[in-house]
Amino acid sequence: MASYTTTHGIKDLTDSSGIESAVFVKWVVTGLGTTLLSDYDQSTTIDGDTYESIGNLLSVTAPRSELRASPAELTITISGIPTDSVTDVLNSDIKGSTIKVSRIYEDHQSSASGSFVIFNGIVTNYSITDSVEPGSKTAATVIALTVNNIVEILNRKTNGRKTHPQDFLDQTGSIDSVMFDLTAILKDKDLQIGAPNK
C-alpha cells in the first residue's frame, strides 16, 4: 500500500516521463460517516486516511484550475453501489455533506511523487439511478453528486418575500407589530391583481 502526505505548492515534473495520476475523494456525510474512495489501482494512505480503490467505478469531472477563488462545480459519479446500501444513502443528509478531492502524481522512474488537494466543496444535489440488465438478473446503482465550492454557494442569493410565520417575529420573539399594521391596511383593499389597466 502506497502512502503520501499532502504537499502545497507546485511540483516540477517537467523532466519526468511516464507520470501516473489518480483521484481521491473524501466524502463526509452526517449519519453515514466518512467514505474514502479512489480510482487508483491499490489502496492508498494520504495524511493517515486509507482510501479504498474502486477503479473505474469512480468518476470525477475535472475542476477548473485558476489563480483566484471563483465559483466552481464538479460532478462525482460512484457506480456499483450495492442495492442494500441505497436505503442508507436515501435516509442520510447527503445535501450539505462535504467533499475533498485530492490527486496524486507519481513518476516511477525518479520516485518523485506528491498529493495535492484540487477541490473542496459541499454537495448541493444528487441523483440515484438504477439499471437492470435484462436476462442477467443483475442491477447496478449509480449515484451522481453535484458539488459546489464555497465561493459558488456564497454567490447564491435568496429572493422573494418572506411568508413563514417565523419571519414576522422581532428580536424578542414576539409578533412584529409593524408588519401586521401593514397587513391590516391592505386587508380590505380591492387590489384587482391581473385586471386590465383602465
What's this entry about, in short?
13% of the residues lie in helices and 40% in strands. The chain is mainly β and 198 residues long. The protein has one domain.
Range of helix content? 10-25%
Distance between the termini: 80 Å
The gross shape turns out to be: elongated
* Helical/strand content category: mainly beta
Low-confidence stretches: none
Beta percentage is: 35-45%
Largest sheet: 10 strands, mixed
Number of strands: 10
Mean residue pLDDT = 77
Number of discrete helical segments? 3
| Rg (C-alpha, Å) | 25 Å
Could you say how many structural domains there are in total? Answer: 1
Q: Order of helices and strands, N to C?
A: EEEEEEEHEEEHH
In the sheet with the most strands, the strands line up as 1-4-5-3-2-8-9-10-7-6
